[in-house]
Amino acid sequence: MASTDAAAVRADVAIIGAGLSGSCIARQLSAYELDIVLLDKECDVSMGVSRANSGIVHGGFHHNLKYLKSRLEIRGNLMYDRLQRELDFPFKRCGILVAALNDEEMKYIDHLYTQGVENGAIGIEMCSRERMFELEPKLNPDCVGGLHAPGGGVLEPYRFVFSVVESAQKNGVEVVTNFEVVHAERAGERYRIHAADGRQVEARYVVNAAGLFADRVSEIFGAEEFQIIPRKGEYFLLDRATEAAPQRVLFPVPTKVSKGMLVIPTVEGTVLIGPTAQEIEDKEDVSTNADQLNLILDQARKMVPKVSQTDVITAFSGLRPALADGDFYIDISAKAPNFIQVAGIQSPGLTAAPAIGEYVKDLVKKAGCSLVEKADWDPYVSKLPRIRDLGPYEADNLVNANPAYGNVVCRCEEISEAEIVEAIRRGHTTLDGIKYFTRAGMGRCQGGFCSYKIIKLLIRETGMSYKDIQKCGAGSELLRDAL
Ligand SMILES: Cc1cc2nc3c(=O)[nH]c(=O)nc-3n(C[C@H](O)[C@H](O)[C@H](O)COP(=O)(O)OP(=O)(O)OC[C@H]3O[C@@H](n4cnc5c(N)ncnc54)[C@H](O)[C@@H]3O)c2cc1C
Q1: Rounded to an integer, what distance in angstroms lies between the CA atom of residue 207 and that of residue 39?
Q2: Where does the pLDDT of residue 323 fall: very low under 50, low under 70, confident under 90, or very high at 90 and above?
Q3: Alpha carbon of 380 to those of 82, 84, 87, 143, 352: distances in Å?
Q4: 344: which strand partners?
Q5: Whose CB has fewer CB within 10 Å in the chain, the N or C terminal residue?
Q6: Tens digit of each residue's pLDDT (9 = 90 or more) over 53-78
Q7: Is there a catalytic annotation at residue 183?
Q8: Per-residue model confidence as pLDDT tens digits over 33-48
Q9: For ligand 1, is residue 39 a contact (CB within 6 Å)?
Q10: Is residue 302 very low, low, confident or very high in pLDDT (cuts 50, 70, 90)?
């Protein structure tokens, strides 16, 4: 992401963490006459929890309204259609099914239905066995009935963050990456925030949206003590050719610790199965484990018997940044002045993110920051053409205008040279940054055929040398030992 040099930054509001929460907060605040800086320790935005999750916009029936996360989930869900029109990211309201495999589970479906109705989840429906198979013929024949939440949907979380950040930048927000906050002190009415590399930013208000590290950032600012407990979720990604692809997101009846193992038709046509739920200690541990992966296959087959190991493209994991009480903790700090906590944002944090943006905007105002609306705030970002979405005539016109659209670099995902060059020009200058922005390298061959072509484009466009090419930030140089 195009990022500013922080040396000279003096802001009204500094937001620490450019994931789903921080980026939505930044965009929301960008509608007001404020100087805002969005800081992240990684080389690009959305490289924390927001990079690896299920990508589901939840249906509003899993949690009771006594939880803040539930109230923000309901509101966030409703905000996505408008956001899609403004921000042009792939999003599909495909709906959600929860399948009961026996009468005991059906009793829990009853509870979920009542909760969904009380929560105001639109169109929620109790389903007979026949209705379930009408909605999803690939279900396990043992299914006895279930729940349908038509308002649920799917999106790619990082693509959403990229669009939100682009919009925030367009409206004046400064984004500073590779800025790891390690120390902060009061300097009059402001905070002076120090990065690991010595750079500094000053701000009157600070929002702590640091995901897994929100407890550490809170400590740095002398604010509340709490502990973020990472809970790992592992996944398998299935090729889009799989016969197991359902039409809707399929949930089992949830357990006490998680929503269970799902079968998710992604917005790009592949299928995700998972996630597991395992409390761990190491916040950097995103390894995968054969036992957990076998568990995923077993459980996913209970939902859709056609799930096959031969369709697996890759495995990955993400870490839920959970607090002990299971809820979000979003509030003005009682200890550190003008410091706002946005912590414990585990699921449904993606669904809730737009509503978190609104909620935190109100807290910033409550903390004393004057919010004067900008007359020229522009909610729209420009639409980026993707060659694989176009029909032959449109594609022909585009290639005539720019022949680089006719050079397909990533064959699995049909990503053209022009799309990769656009990503680089927008500041995504690592292989992961380009992958998450364009999908190049996310298909069947997982970058086996296109990575070297992308490296060559990076060198051509930026003037970088082979030695500088990174997978994702310092220390991940790809060719350092080879040269
Ligand atoms: C397995 C799994 C499945 C999930 N599925 C869903 C789902 O289907 N639907 C749903 O609604 N939600 C889901 N979630 C939840 C959702 O992914 C999270 O709620 C959301 O991504 C949290 O975003 P965030 O911005 O709060 O945190 P993050 O994305 O982690 O952002 C925090 C940022 O802070 C930065 N940072 C940390 N420390 C510092 C520092 N010292 N200095 C500077 N920067 C710092 C990090 O680099 C990071 O980019 C899932 C989560 C997981 C793990």
Answers
A1: 10
A2: very high
A3: 11, 10, 6, 44, 21
A4: none
A5: C
A6: 999 999 999 999 999 999 999 999 99
A7: no
A8: 999 999 999 999 999 9
A9: yes
A10: very high
Residue with tokens 């939505």: 24
6-51+157-227+325-366 carries CATH number 2.60.40.10: no
All structural domains of the chain with their residue ranges? 6-51+157-227+325-366, 92-153+229-322, 387-468
Catalytic residue among 58, 63, 148, 428: 58
Q: Given 3.20.20.70, 3.40.50.20, 1.10.10.10, 1.10.10.1100, which CATH number is that of 387-468?
A: 1.10.10.1100
Answer whether 349 contacts ligand 1 (Cβ < 6 A).
yes
- The residues near 188 (Cβ < 8 Å, ≥ 6 apart) are none
CB of 230 closer than 6 A to ligand 1? no
Instruction: Tell me 32's DSSP state.
Output: B
| 348 CA from centroid of ligand 1 (Å) | 11
Q: Which atom of ligand 1 is nearest to the CA of 274?
A: 1
Share of the chain above pLDDT 70, in %: 97
- Got the DSSP string for 442-474? -STTTTTTTHHHHHHHHHHHH---GGG-BSSST
Judged by DSSP in three states, 248 sits in coil
Question: What tens digit of pLDDT does each residue of 204-257 get?
Answer: 999 999 999 999 999 999 999 999 999 999 999 999 999 999 999 999 998 776
Domain 92-153+229-322 - what CATH class? alpha beta
Averaged pLDDT score across all residues of the chain: 95
